[in-house]
């Protein structure tokens, strides 16, 4: 009888499971987009918002509590929708208003997916990386939503890859991530602690460029309206939206996990706040100590995912960067059984999150992220990690 070892099982999983998941999902997605009138994606919101912006109605997006009823009905949606994104995101989505919806969503997803895949391939230049990233559940979730997860992961990953090679370009790309500010909050902390002054300068330059450009295109009143609407958006996420709690049920943060578990909003805020403070300290220490790549990058991305209270399912594309960095590092230094188990758990985490949310209205993703963060810290640990003097690299 053949002796099946863990290496053989791990290899067979990589060869067969990701391609099967990707092609089965792609067939279903194409059918729904092309032939169904009742299955639209979140990209519909981006598309209609960009239409309004092109007609000079950008600020009106922030003055109403939801899109008009004809927008909701044409999208086959059964709950109110609204525009909760920054004017910077509106600037990003503006070009897609000039294309019909079906063509627009395919252009959007194909270009951003290509960007995402190219970045992950750069991190982990293995022959099977393509299938692993295409079949990654977070990839399929983002395609299903038609959302911006690929763009976010692509900008973050490419910026971190170039950090030691092209400081200004790296900082510029990282600054563009401020179109979704909750994902960019820890980046300045890492750059300051790591003394990446050129990248920090470029980060603030591209961030300011996004704000100024969107204000020039849509008007300064759009930014004013957006800032005024932030408390309302927070209320929708915490207490529901016109009686619907779909937004909270799509979140995979520690904050959302506390709310799902029945904790009060105040207690959930307190726990999330403590976690955020701890992550700021951890990122600052690791980047100040100049822990070797790719551990410092993996730790930063995991910290970003745990830092934001408003982590949605499609944002878990960032987890693909972590798996690529750690997987490639393990491949170079040799896999242990625990390495394989943790990488496999991380790969399946977005899918498990959806299943547990539906089954017990509780996301397991934060627990997986914490375990992976602990793993990275353990792999990065040296006896000098918590000393005041930085080790020589």
Evaluate the radius of gyration: 21 Å
Number of domain units: 1
Q: Quick one: how many beta strands?
A: 0
Q: For the record, give the distance between the C-alpha atoms at the N and C termini, rounded to a whole number.
A: 49 Å
Give the biggest beta sheet: none
Judging from the principal axes of the Cα atoms, what is the shape? Answer: globular
Counting DSSP H or I runs of 4 or more residues, the number of helices is 18
The helix fraction, in percent, is 55-70%
Mean pLDDT: 81
Please report which band the strand proportion falls in: under 5%, 5-15%, 15-25%, 25-35%, 35-45% or over 45%. under 5%
Helix/strand order, N-terminal first: HHHHHHHHHHHHHHHHHH
What tags apply to this protein structure?
393 residues; 18 helices; globular; mainly alpha; disordered C terminus
